[in-house]
Each structure stands twice: as structure tokens, then as C-alpha cells.
Amino acid sequence: MIALDMPIKLFIFLIIFLSSISSAFSEENSQLIEIENPRFTEKGLDDKIYEIKAERGLQSNDYLELTKVEGKFKTDNNAWIFLEADTGIFSQSTNVIQLKDNIVFYTENNESFKSDRATFDMKKDIVSLTNIEHKREDNLIIADRSVINDNFSKIVYEGNVITKIIFEN
Fold first, then answer.
1. CA dihedral over 123, 90, 146, 48, signed as positive or negative
2. Do 84 and 6 share a domain, yes or no?
3. What is the pLDDT of residues 73-99, one digit of tens each?
4. Is 111 helix (H, G, I), strand (E, B) or coil?
5. Domains of the chain: total
6. Residue 146 is part of which domain span?
7. Residues 48, 16: one domain?
8. Which of 26, 60, 79, 85 is deepest in the core (most CB within 10 A)?
9. Is the Cβ–Cβ distance between 114 and 131 less than 8 Å?
10. pTM (global) more than 0.85
11. Same domain membership, residue 15 and residue 54
């Protein structure tokens, strides 16, 4: 009979343990709030303007997971930089958005930056890109990584960097 007691106690312990994990998991998921068409707009004291919007957002504490992200921000030269990405995670406390999948930053002057992953720190005005293709007029720069700062006026390429220049006859 003692031999039967041990497996039964183990079975009961597993049921209690698994149910506590299940309830903790459901409590964590119940904190998710779905937001349709979330939008963030800010105009700082230094006239920096940005807007980020998405088709859908899931908020959990400080983070907002975004789907079909679009954005725009104004540089010091009054030029608009536009942004598109499939997904992103926005931290409200740090004003940092991490983007992934089909990321494109582009300007009104047909300049574009395509990337696999990007981090945009809106407070520091720094964009970090991974696996980047930067196209400007007839020039194409491909790099492993890139950091863009000083209001999109300073671009640093890192890793394997290839530059292609197309000359027209």
C-alpha cells in the first residue's frame, strides 16, 4: 500500500503544479490588451515631430506589440522620413521601437533604407539597422549593419560593405 501511495502523491503533486502554471500563464495573458489602430504622436520642445501608427497592437505593461507599422518623423531640415515594417515592439517608457520584417525607411527624395531588423531610439534620434540596403539615386550600399544619427545626416556602415555606383552613358 505504501508503494501505491507514492505514485498517487506524485500524480496529485503534478496536477497541482501544472494547474498553478496554467493559472499563472492565463493571468499573464489576461493582462494583454488589444488596441485597434494605435497611434503615437509627439512634438518635442526642439520641434522634433514623429508619428507611429499600426493596424493592431497588443499591450502588455510597458510594451506594445504592433502589426503593420507605419511612421513618419521630421528632420531638422524639415524633410520627412517615412517608415514601414511588418511588426514592431514599442516601449512607452524609453520611446524605443524595435522593428522586424520588411522594414523600409524612405524619403520624399526617393532615398530608401531596407533592412531585416531595426531599432529606432526616438529620444536619442538613433536608428540601428541590420542587413541594410541603402539606395540613393544611382547608388546602392549594402552592409551588415548601419547606424544613422544626427537627424539622418550621419550614416555609418559596419561589417561587409558593398557599394554599387551606376554610371549612365
1. negative
2. no
3. 888 788 888 999 999 998 888 888 899
4. coil
5. 2
6. 34-165
7. no
8. 85
9. no
10. no
11. no
